[in-house]
Amino acid sequence: MEKLIAPAVEALGYDIVRVAFSDGDRAVLQIMAERKTDGGMSVDDCAEVSRTVAAILDVEDPISGPYNLEVSSPGLDRPLTRLADFDRFANFEAKVEVGTPIDGRRRFAGRLRGVAGQDIILEGEGERWQLPFADVTKAKLRLTDELIAASQASRATSANDA
What we know:
single chain, alpha+beta, GMP Synthetase, Chain A, domain 3, SH3 type barrels
């Protein structure tokens, strides 16, 4: 699905953070996106992405049956889905899960230290882990006072630049 909609969404000036489809009583196609320029996402931005994606899906019709389309911001405690995210959010706290156990564990939490090649560097509990990005099954930022303060400072800077 992402391959189908990504070119149009990116042409509007947004990056797709995640696309998820859940089937059930009422299927839901969830798209998380952010502006390329500053990582923000307003209600108007969500509406613009939603209109564009809905038009593509109406023409291509890749989903059989009824579904809801949800477009949202990734939020502060955002999922980390691209290798570049781990560099972008270096020095913030994160939770990372891997598919193959490393030293007998699959879940790690700590401070991101960026990437080395195709590996994520994470420090916590007095240890430093090098986790293969290809084996990451789930990763997200942890909501901390530090992350909230950085987000507020970023918004203030963006408002001053406007």
